[in-house]
Amino acid sequence: MSGTFLGMPVFGTGNLNATEPFPTAAHRELGNAQLRANLGHATHTIRDKRLKVVSELPDWEDLRNAGSAIKENVMARLPELLETFEANFTARGGIVHWARDAREANEIVTALIRATGETEVVKVKSMATQEIGLNEHLESQGIEAFETDLAELIVQLDRDKPSHILVPAIHKNRSQVRDIFLREMPGVDPALTNEPARLAEAARKHLRRKFLSAKVAVSGANFGLADTGTLAVVESEGNGRMCLTLPETLITVMGIEKLLPTFTDLEVFMQLLPRSSTGERMNPYTSLWTGVTPDDGPQNVHLVMLDNGRTAALADGMGRSALHCIRCSACMNVCPVYERTGGHAYGSTYPGPIGAILSPLLTGITSEENASLPYASSLCGACFDACPVKINIPEILVHLRGVDVDSRRRAVKVPSEMDLMMKGAQWAFSSGKHLGLLEKGLPLGRLAAGRDKLIKKLPGHLAGGWTQSRDIPAPPSQSFRHWWAANRETKEQA
Amino acid sequence: MRIALFATCIVDAMYPRTARATVAILERLGHEVVFPAGQACCGQMHVNSGYFKEALPVVKNHVEAFDMDDYDVAVAPSGSCVASVKHQHQMIARRCGDTALEARAGVVGAKTYELSQLLTDVLGVTNAAAQLGSHFPHTVTYHPSCHGMRLLRLGDRQRTLLATVGGIELVELPEADQCCGFGGTFSLKNADVSSAMLADKAANIRGTGAELCSGGDASCLLHIGGGLSRQGSTVGTLHFAEILASTLEQPAEMEMAGMT
Amino acid sequence: MSARDDILARIASALRDAPVAPAIPRDYRRATALTGEQRLAQLVDRLEDYKANVAVVPAAAAAVTVAQLLAGASSIVVPEGLPSSYLSALADLTDDGGAPAVLVDSPARRLTVAQLDAVDAVVTAAAVAVSETGTIILDGSPDQGRRIISLVPDRHVCLLTMDQVVEVLPEAIALLDPTRPQTWISGPSATSDIELERVEGVHGPRTLDVIVLS
Fold first, then answer.
1. A462: pLDDT confidence band, cut at 50, 70 and 90?
2. Given B120, B146, B170, which residue is the final one in a domain?
3. How many cross-chain Cβ pairs, A to B, lie less than 8 Å apart?
């Protein structure tokens, strides 16, 4: 990578791209009744839990306002905060590395593991390493990575892909999990039942020896606190504590946007995050470390600070606030689209409403596939209401649709059905006279509707999609505009 | 008070009775209603589909139709069109570099109310039966549309007005806050997901046993009604303005709700 | 150009529009509104809600309570700085094999992972507790020890004094030294990974006993 920096955004690489347009993927996933049932159950469970713990706090909106302002602060002061963080983390014996993109981050982590002479690592659930495809890269380099979070373990054992940022196996129910364990977990009790407590116990037994003997761990980070150089990992099971405490070497991969200005800011985010994500007042375990603590925990501590398109997202003044995301998953848990399609339909590591804006911001709207993501929303706004840092996801979705339309405009292609429809509607809707003229044709629609007064099939791909599952009532014989002109204006003038 | 009616394109063309009901309610309260003839559409279909350039003339037309001094407030029987006027018009003007239009759009937006907002907050209607003579002896369930609920924060305004109509039996809609799946061109671009959302909404509505589903946005009601009709359901849809306008002497025509 | 310089230059370019860093409104609660008694009741409620076992006893009864909880244990680990008074009643245990062996983790004698894996329980103090969330925070002080000793044993007995209990998280944050390694604990190890239903008992200690000295 050269230093020929020209001020153009440099986009991210890795597992951020959809591989097929969202409607195509959604069509397939919608046909999976088991998936629909699993997602419906899980998202409804978590919605209720979240609402309950959020309503307990009298100052929830104050916390959201503070969280939003703190993150806006971070973006505005990012260079200064990164340098402060680096200085503090380094002063305490940690080593900081910088990675422009997925490839560079993977190479850095690989080299650090190689230097230890180990060929196995234990991993704490991390979106950043999922995004850069670290496990696949390590495998290609002869290094085996063991996921230790229960849901990640399920997905890894099943050779599946995560479908949710907090609960990567949300698309599996308890019986499916049991079947995966019975099939893939060496030495598992053949009498294993599908009770979640028994499944958790099986995971404990399976990973215990790995934890106690691991020499190298790889983690992500939920927060980096600039004024102290402290990193934080928020978790539930204790697999995080195991990875962050027992090995000799700890390698953390963190996006550059994960900083908070001060240690004090944790008091806001550690109230917002657990209640928004698992619907708990506080998650069972949070670990904080600042560089190396002599005689306690890993003595060889590294941090890889990752760009991978984050600076490109930062360069988009309208989309920038997508980087405020703290990966709580509240937006996808309340999203009616996610609830029905699941996370795989989004292709990227980041599914749901936040993924529909974050993925194209990180990669640029360069492919038809990722360009389809901002349209994967009815703009109902439930995500914005649920977001603990008040990311206006619907507004950014609309903004990115505009970016997409403009980029296709520049590409000078044959106008799409949608382009033609919008052009026609522009004429109709930019003048009362035009619309009035068109409305003279309403009786024709009545004719088309026929005796049952319903239009049941429209031509074309777009309009035909509507009439797949919906009738259209026969239009009235006279529009309001014409009725008013005939009944009111003449009266007034008389 | 002199009130300018913004009928919205869909009500103007497809549901003129909703606009006439709006006029009837306001006149019953002793106000004068005017209809700025230049009006057409708020432009949210263009905006929400990313066609900002095409939205500009639509926004401009709306601002020109409503930027005048001879009315006190403007009202529309739609949460989502009012949200567009209030929240999107300035953004479009700004993006297109038209600062004069941005300022005028701000003035128009500030004077524009959704119908239940105007009735409740400005005109002081707290009891539809007592103050409007509303009478509608039917079992009704109510779907709060997303933009009214989340962009305008209408809260219970529409529901409360409906609940005070004489003779009405208002039944709770399970999962009422869930989107019906319309979303403008979302229902075209992502027709399958939209249909799946609609199917759940329709099932919830049918499960209430109500004769019809009311709401405050003609577009969502068109969508919901279209789904119910396709399923062969006799449950209809009716805008809350028409229920408020309905009286003992002049009951709402149920055929309008698709109930023949 | 190094990756570091490159990324910093990209950021500078991305921020060409010079966004303003807004003032941070801290209108949320930063001090307690509860009496000590209310805080205690809240802490007990929240700990129990997340399946921790709680005992509220007078300070003088600390040792007896610890001994009662650890009856039947064959060995336990404690950090070197744990007040010895907390353990003074262990010797009185006569049933179930008598008093457990007490292993002390000290800078002079560090216990191995295998040793820690073999003990039945760990007994520690804590730095601070937050009643509203049922959270206990350890910061590696001598009475709490290295992070590993409160992690590997399957049972964690944690003693708190009432003056360590605050109501809201901001009060706790103000009391903590950021550079010490911290472990925030809210109940025993748990997971919500299967159908988003919380179940206790995964990798961390599966039993958490909290003794609050009133």
1. confident
2. B120
3. 209
The CATH number given to whatever domain includes residue B53 is 3.40.50
Question: What's the CA gap between C87 and C99, in Å, rounded?
Answer: 10
Report phi then psi at A32, rounded to 5: -95, 95
> Does residue B252 share a domain with residue B130?
yes
A450 contacts B235 by C-beta, under 8 angstroms: no
Q: Do C21 and A315 touch (CB under 8 A)?
A: no
Domains observed in chain A: 22-311 (3.40.50.10420), 417-493 (no CATH)
pLDDT tens by residue, A280-297: 999 999 999 999 999 999
- The predicted pLDDT at position A123 comes to 97
- Residue A457, chain B, CB below 8 Å: the answer is no
pLDDT on residue A269: 98
End-to-end alpha carbon distance in chain A: 79
Question: Which residues on C lie below 8 Å from A2 (Cβ)?
Answer: 1
**A191: which DSSP letter?**
T
Same domain, B139 and B175: yes
pLDDT at residue A454 in the model = 87
Strands B112-114 and B73-76: parallel
How much is the mean pLDDT over chain C? Answer: 95
Q: B192, B197, B230: best mutation site toward chain A, by most A Cβ within 10 Å? A: B192
Q: What does the alpha-carbon distance between residue A131 and residue A153 come to, in Å, rounded to a whole number?
A: 17
The answer to whether the CB atoms of A26 and B95 lie below 8 A apart is no
- Could you give the CA distance from residue B77 to residue B6 in angstroms, rounded to a whole number? 8
Note the pLDDT of residue A1.
40
Number of domains into which chain B is organized: 2
pLDDT digits 0-9 by tens, A391-443? 999 999 999 999 999 998 888 678 888 999 999 999 999 999 999 999 999 98
Distances (CA, A) of B16 to A294, A483, B13, B33, B255: 77, 8, 6, 15, 14
Domains of chain C, first to last: 34-213 (3.40.50.10420)
Chain A partners within 8 Å of B150 (Cβ): 380-382, 384-385
- Our CA-based measurement puts residue C90 at a distance from the nearest CA of chain A, in whole angstroms, of 28
Please report residues of A whose CB lies closer than 8 A to that of B13. Answer: 435, 438-439, 442, 475, 479-480
Nearest chain A residue to C186 by CA distance is A284
Amino acid at position A173, single letter: N
pLDDT < 50 stretches in chain B: 259-260
Kindly state whether residues B159 and B210 are assigned to the same domain. yes
At A3, is the pLDDT very low, low, confident or very high (cuts 50, 70, 90)? very low
Q: What is the pLDDT of residue A17?
A: 87
What SS3 state is found at B112?
strand
Chosen domain end from B63, B85, B120: B120
Assess whether B172 and B133 both reside in one domain.
yes
A239 touches chain C (CB under 8 A): yes
Q: How many CB atoms lie within 10 A of CB A489?
A: 13
Q: What range defines the domain where residue B184 resides? A: 126-257
| A63: nearest CB among C28, C147, C176 | C28
Instruction: Please tell me the predicted confidence (pLDDT) of residue C197.
Output: 82
Residues of A whose CB is below 8 A from C20 = 76
Whole-angstrom CA distances from A211 to A53, A206, C24, C138, C181 are 33, 10, 41, 21, 20
Q: Does B83 touch chain A (CB under 8 A)?
A: no
pLDDT single digits (tens) C107-121: 999 999 999 999 999
Domain at B158, CATH number = 3.40.50.11810
Instruction: Extract the runs of DSSP E, i.e. beta strands, from chain B.
Output: 2-5, 32-34, 73-76, 112-114, 139-142, 169-171, 212-215, 236-239
pLDDT-based confidence at A490, cuts 50/70/90?
low
Provide the pLDDT for residue A492.
52
pLDDT for position A309: 97
